[in-house]
Amino acid sequence: MFCAFSLLALPKGFCHAIIALMDKTHTFSTVCLALGANLGDRLAALKAAREALEPFVEILDLSSVYETTPAYVMDQPLFLNAALLGKTKFDPRGLLYSVKNVELEIGRKPTFRYGPRVIDIDIIFYGDEVMKTPELTLPHDSIAERSFVLRPLTEIASDWVHPVLGKSARDLLNALPDKADPRIIAESF
Fold first, then answer.
1. Residue 100 lies in a domain
2. pLDDT tens-digit profile of 93-146?
3. Containing domain of residue 79, as a range?
4. In CATH, what number is assigned to the domain containing residue 125?
5. Residue 54 lies in a domain
6. Which of 49, 125, 121, 119 lies closest to 85 in space, CA to CA?
7. I want to staple 76 with a disulfide (CB 3.0 to 4.6 A). Which of 93, 114, 116, 187 is the partner?
8. What does pTM read for this prediction?
9. pLDDT tens, 49-94?
10. Catalytic machinery residues
């Protein structure tokens, strides 16, 4: 088993022991994760990511899956994008490291910034947490400009209010200049 707690493959029992310990020592925090893929079997990658996240994120809701044009770097395949709302006992950094390990497990390879990828998982929000470190910014620092994140987020958490901007997910989406509706590929993943 690939353990979500380190970049090393650890024995299955070790990972489950850490999860069991966390169940006894931490309270739950509500989180939203955005998922995207534009290489290989994109829908299968989103489903694999959801399944790999389940040991440390209790999934409460899933958005539809949207097909979207790439942002920032246009010369690449179309993306599938989705979001999930869940609860976790991991702290923000623990969740980040776990999410990055899931990406590696599914087959993500380093490329250039905004380049194509088998899977991309971003922490959009972690409760009302506001933080900025070299490896993690909460809420996600580009959320207000990304319809491919806001559309699925609005579907599952439209009333969530950005703790810095003071606007709901729906208000952020409505403020975007591009009102084009992306195509829904699947009702869930």
1. yes
2. 999 999 999 999 998 988 878 778 999 999 999 999 999 999 999 999 888 988
3. 28-186
4. 3.30.70.560
5. yes
6. 125
7. 116
8. 0.83
9. 999 999 999 999 999 999 998 888 788 899 999 999 999 999 999 9
10. 108, 117, 120, 122
